Amino acid sequence: MQGRKALLYSYLINHKSEPDFQDIYIKYKEQIKGFAKEQLQKGEISDALTTIYKVLFKDGVFLQENYLYLPSVIFKKKFICKNKNIQFLIICTRGLREGAVFKFNNGTAFADVSGEYSAALVSDKNGNIYPAGEFCVSETLIPYYDYLDGCYEAGGRSLMELLTVVAENDRYHRESRHLSEICEELIKMDGLTCGYKCFLKGKLLEHYFESNEGEKLEFILKNYDFSKANQTQVEYAAEMAIIRKCISIVSICTQTFKL
Asked: How many angstroms separate the CA atoms of 207 and 202, rounded?
């Protein structure tokens, strides 16, 4: 039933500028909004729903009212596989200890893929695993870029969202006024690798130094593996440690890079 509604509403949207459909679209516009909000809150996605979401996300009022639910759909990616022996899609994301598994349904799977470095794999009936690129084509449904800050400010704290903000900063130097808060939140989460948490601490080390947040920096330094830091980070740490009179940390920094 919901699938048929989505198809009907997406059809009206695609033809709303045509004379025969203009009045019909206006008549159903509020119903479409209500339906979209309901599906968005459930985290539902399909080709038809993607068409509806893309139009309504341009509506400032609708967007403000529903920012909290956007992370459930904006990181969805569509994978199409024509090989009937392939049953599962596996997404492995940098920083996460475990991959996420999605089942193909009639050759299609919708998977949550953050902006962080990810590897897509597929599994056949016998459990054999292959790179997804050998069997699948993928499609990004809704570009997440413009919605990240709004989702966070609305209270969204999905793992996909937090990982993506960090990745956007790391890979493309995209600034986020919430970056340090997000790194702090991620460090507290279970399910992240030790290596990724060390990477987050490195970002916080640089941020705290540049913003002269001595107490927070001192807390990070006391639990930081300097063998995995670059020289700039160690120099930051040593300088702030001297200011904060953390002699033990100065000693570690000196031994690590012979400053």
From this structure: 9
> Per-residue confidence at 250, pLDDT binned at 50, 70, 90?
very low
Residue linked to tokens 């045509």: 18
pTM strictly above 0.85: no
For tokens 């893929």, name the residue: 113
- The DSSP secondary structure of 63-105, one letter per residue, reads HHHHGGGGGGTTTEEEEEE--TTEEEEEEEETTBSS-EEEE-B
Say which residue the tokens 């799977």 belong to. 109
**Which percentage of the chain shows pLDDT scores above 70?**
84
- Between the CA of residue 220 and those of 180, 184, 186, 200, 234, what are the distances in Å? 12, 10, 14, 10, 12
Sign of the C-alpha dihedral, residues 164, 169, 175, 176? Answer: positive
- Overall average pLDDT of the 232-239 stretch: 58
Looking up tokens 């927070």, which residue turns up?
Answer: 216
